[in-house]
Write a structure and sequence with these properties.
26% of the residues lie in helices and 26% in strands. By secondary structure, the chain is of the alpha/beta class.
Amino acid sequence: MIVGSPTISVPLAKNMMSSVEYWIQPHTALPQATPPEMKFWHDIKLLSNSPFSAKKVTIASGPYQGCQAIIIEPEAPEELQPLSAPTRHLGLMDLPIELRLKIYQTLFDNSDPVILRSDRPPTFTTTPSHFFSQSNLAITGVCRQIRSEILPVVYGGRTFQIDSPLIPDLVVEKFLVNIGNLRKHLRFLRVGRYADSHWSRPDMFNRFLTCPNLRRVHFHVHAIGKSPEDFARFFYKSARLWLHDVAPKEVHGQPGLDMISFSNLPNSWPGNDWNENGGKKLTNLIKALLDDESTQ
């Protein structure tokens, strides 16, 4: 049994020495809750002026085979330990652009059209009413890069439908003016109650020239007392510049004029169903007018 206070030297690092002092005191009184087969025990206290760790091992060979020993290992002082790099969490901009676009699409995942209604053009109300609110579009103000990435999703993924009993093309033109440069992201428009008149109204169609990404423009027609040929001529006169711009183009592998469709054409018009295939027969009349002017 070892008593007293012998001292051993423990090297901690180059040019550093420290000592570990230990005392082993015998005891005859057993602590409470000691298993009955354990009749002898010692308190061991280890003191040092430098950091160290201690662990108990069993000696596997040699004269002390089977005996237990305490291994004392020095540890570098805390001020000498290398600082670990701070944990860096991935942010939105650390993700690939493909994943960011999926996140944006999830945020604005809604196939319902954005409906603009007007009883007194050119003013209009919007449904859903929060679409243009600051809270709905707040993410576009985070930074320029996010704004440039998300606006095509916000404005290009929804159909904007204009419902107005009075001059809907005036409401469309006002809407395109109000959103400014954002109209370059628009892809889907629906014009409700598009009616003929005795004069051409080109303003709306001229604004379409500033919407280079349009893929589909649908017209819900309100034609009274006009023949198909008369309505086609009225539409052509109003949309002439825009039609000449889109006709030679391809939109997703389709002829440019295929982006135009019609519905609610009068059943009284002679011939077969004029509403079949998105008013394809009316589109063909308009295309014929375009071809005639091109050949002159």
